[in-house]
Amino acid sequence: MKVLLGVTGSIAAYKSVIVARLLTKAGHEVKTIITRGGENFISSLSISNLTVNDVFTDDDFWMPGQKIPLHIELARWPDVVVVAPATMHFLGKLAHGFADDLLTSTIAAIDRPVVLAPAMHTEMWNSRVLQDNVIRLKIFGYEFVGPYEGELSSGDRGIGRMAEPEDIIERVIQIGKTERKLRGKRIVITYGGTEEELDDVRVITNKSSGKMGVSLSRRAKELGAHVIAVVGRVEVQPLYYDEIYHARSVDELSMTLKEIVPDADVLIMAAAVSDFKPAGRLEGKVKRGERLVVEFEPTEDILRSLSKDKKPGQIFVGFALESRNLLENAEKKMHEKGVDIIVANYATAMGSDFIRGYILSREEKIPLKTLTKSELAIILFDKIAEKIEK
Ligand code: CTP
């Protein structure tokens, strides 16, 4: 695997030397970027000797005469990026889109998984501004390993110690495994809410925002998949796709999926599909009056229909939105809809950046504490990759 290692200015940088060494010994190719702060703690020479590969600093970033800008060239190189240690300052810059040195500019142009291993004193880790930035980064899809509780360079004990090199590497290797399973796979991701017309100006829809779908798409693309987005009514900008279809109503969604799902390797049905549609669409704009009675009829259960033609090897994932009896209802849906995995979650997830519930498959029930939707996407694709293996 090609690993791009970022080293920022913390005393924990001595452990990045171990990360570089262990990765190289395990047969991975490692290129390194050291920030100005990082250079105060370790030398390019020691890392380049250990990795037998390139080490870059900001001196290289500002060198004239590059054919392709260095940060673009570097951003196109790795399978995965690891920043260890990641300081408070670096996380702050990343969380707010600053790209004023080689490392932040490279990560700005990266479309691969990025793992962050923070290291700082407990007071800094616990500060509101840092925690706010960590949440932002987790919403965007950056992955964290650590920090751990333990002894700190000040001699105090507390949270803020960089994760152990072995644990960072274990995560990198796991990402590599997932990536190998998903690279080139055609993944259909539906998201957003459906919309049924009542008359010429009014619609019935739901509170789905599409945030889950964007997080899933980002992760799928980071893992090298071919993402086919099927998007309903959304409040966010659809991003990270190779192909996009727009489907507003349940019938449009059904038609689109019946066309494209036969060629897909994975279907993730994150769309909030209406269970009812008006039995008859009213003409024009209905005028104000005493009251309006609209009769609704049930819609097709699209996932259930698609499952009937599910091919061997295809993986289907559903989402079950419940307000009560979460596990019981979700499990029932998994069987009835013929899906391999179902994400059981509560209505509070709608429109939110966060989600909690369970990932259910026939073999396991993984409880999820409150996570960002991007964190869920990371876990979900690890599980999907495991299924592809079988
Ligand atoms: N789904 C679907 N077609 C529908 C309704 C839902 O394909 N007409 C899909 C959703 O995209 C989701 C899964 O089925 O992946 C479960 O959706 P959910 O709304 O939780 O369940 P419903 O089947 O609608 O059942 P209920 O509303 O009774 O909970």
Summary of the model, kept short:
The chain has 390 residues and is an alpha/beta fold.
Structure description:
By secondary structure, the protein is of the alpha/beta class. It folds into two domains: 2-180, Rossmann fold (3-Layer(aba) Sandwich); 184-389, Rossmann fold (3-Layer(aba) Sandwich), CATH 3.40.50. The chain is built from 15 helices and 20 strands. The chain has helices at residues 13-25, 36-39, 44-51, 58-61, 70-75, 88-95, 102-108, 122-125, 128-140, 165-182, 211-222, 250-260, 302-308, 326-336, 373-389, and strands at residues 2-7, 29-34, 55-56, 80-86, 114-118, 143-144, 148-151, 157-161, 186-191, 196-197, 203-204, 226-231, 243-246, 266-269, 276-278, 296-298, 315-322, 341-346, 354-361, 365-372. Strands 13-12-9-14-17-18-19-20 form an eight-stranded mixed beta sheet, sandwiched between helices. A six-stranded parallel beta sheet has the order 3-2-1-4-5-6, sandwiched between helices. Helix 1 links the parallel strand 1 and strand 2 (29-34). It is elongated and about 75 Å long. The model has no long low-confidence stretch (mean pLDDT 96). Cytidine-5'-triphosphate is lined by residues 250, 269, 271, 273, 275, 299-303, 318-321, 333, 337. Cytidine-5'-triphosphate binds at residues 250, 269, 271, 273, 275, 299-303, 318-321, 333, 337.
